[in-house]
Amino acid sequence: MNTVVIFQFYPSEDAGYLAHFLTEKNIPWHYIRVDQGQPIPTSLNNISAMIMMGGPMSVNDKLPWIPPLLNLICQAQNENIPMVGHCLGGQLIAKALGAQVKTNSVREIGWGKVTPANNDDAKAYFGEKAFQAFHWHGETFELPKESIPLLSSPYCQNQAFSLGNTLAMQCHIEMTKEMITEWCISDANYHAQGLATSPAVQTLTQMETDTVCYLPLLQQQAKRCYEHWLTKINVKF
Questions:
Q1: Residue 2 pLDDT greater than 90, yes or no
Q2: C-alpha dist (Å) from residue 39 to 6, 7, 77
Q3: Closest C-alpha to 56, from 84, 89, 88, 18
Q4: Taking the domain 3-230, which CATH number applies?
Q5: How far apart are CA 4 and CA 50, in angstroms?
Q6: Which of 69, 53, 49 shows the shortest CA–CA distance to 5?
Q7: Per-residue model confidence as pLDDT tens digits over 184-209
Q8: Where do the structural domains in the chain lie, given as residue ranges?
Q9: Strand segments (E) across the chain
Q10: What is the per-residue pLDDT across 102-132, written as a single tens digit (0 to 9) for each?
């Protein structure tokens, strides 16, 4: 049976809201737990779409699973297999498609406004109004050739792009309350370092307050985005 595969690279960075969304839509999906040593597939047989989640590592690290995954991403792009990447996942897509991934000018951690670009793809995925997305990153991608910019923020110009059936995001739209709480605990040192040096890092108190307000709205935005992305999956389940 054709299925959506979700690559998870770190224990605390699962598919979150996206997993609930796919299940509610009766879309078959399963994880490939790279963080547990599961291998990268060598072919796209029975794969209808690929999803890449986030993680604290860099795409420029010399990790054994990165080269085969970059090759698989290139293969999927060439065969028009839909893909979506979140943060590290978006950076992996960008690098596979020939763009540079580098250190951002500042770390972005917590809630922050992103603004859709003025083009049809951006409107289809995200609408026309700015919204509060969740951020947890210190690197950023440049745009691959022929890609379409979708989102930007005051502290990171390239927050999302599309290229054919592919959507790559620097920000996180897949968040749940449980994920935010866990990241604040498991990545406390990274947050503390950023808080001391970056104007784009929220205090934990402000992050908690904003989560109550912004998370339901973000999940509405995520639903819109994922529903549009699903229209690109032509294989019947």
A1: no
A2: 13, 10, 20
A3: 88
A4: 3.40.50.880
A5: 6
A6: 49
A7: 999 999 999 999 999 999 999 999 99
A8: 3-230
A9: 3-8, 29-33, 47-52, 83-86, 101-116, 131-141, 148-153, 156-163, 166-169
A10: 999 999 999 999 999 999 999 999 999 999 9
